[in-house]
User: Fold this.
Amino acid sequence: MSSSQPKTAPPALLEARGVTVAFDGFRAVDDVTFTVAAGALIGIAGTNGAGKSTLFGALAGQLPVSAGEIRLQGRDMTALPAHRRAGLGLARTFQVPREFGTLSVLDNLLAAAPNARHETLAAAWFGRPGGRRRDAELTAQADEVLRLTGLAAMRDQPAAALSGGQKKLLELSRALMGQPRCILLDEPFAGVNPVLIGQLLEVLRAIHARGLALVVIEHHLQALKTLVQRLVVMDQGRILADGAPQAVLDDARVQAAYMGGVA
Assistant:
């Protein structure tokens, strides 16, 4: 006998509910509510000072919220520190990459793997076979990530030798080592030459095709429009528009916020 009870929809992967971030009374993020579904591909745009990076900082746990709550798969993580959120599947990249310049590209990835360094040092000290197996597994995982992001040829080069665009790819590769469910990308195309922007777009599409949710902050609206399925525009700490990319860019309020218009 079939049940007539309606099925309960699964919780959104990531939720911001009435999130406010204030500094000395100034609301950099002002009562923002939005959701990210599993496997979503969302862009967040806005002029300088709109609150985009502050919102990312609150979502990822680098900044405390003044009001509201943040949930991951229905779990309230508003009070959790950044490393706990990362362990639950929420990763973040930064506008300015934070690579370890003297380490190789491979070692940058191994250093980003959860608990990797502790296990590696313990295995080296005690010679545990289990630790050596874990090292081999992490190296294989890192090599797979480097193939995905197009950095395999730079595997043994010091990270400091990479170009700006390659460092953005390295930052993304490090985030992938934690096997996240969702990645917040803060201006991945900033300071990147047009050829590498094309490469970055292809890499992001490939990652999204594997089922990861991506939320991308970007000033480069043309690149963003070709990538995302949904566009959110912020202005003065609030969400101004949210919907299909071209419809949002055609919104008169968005046009006014950008003053010169957007295409």
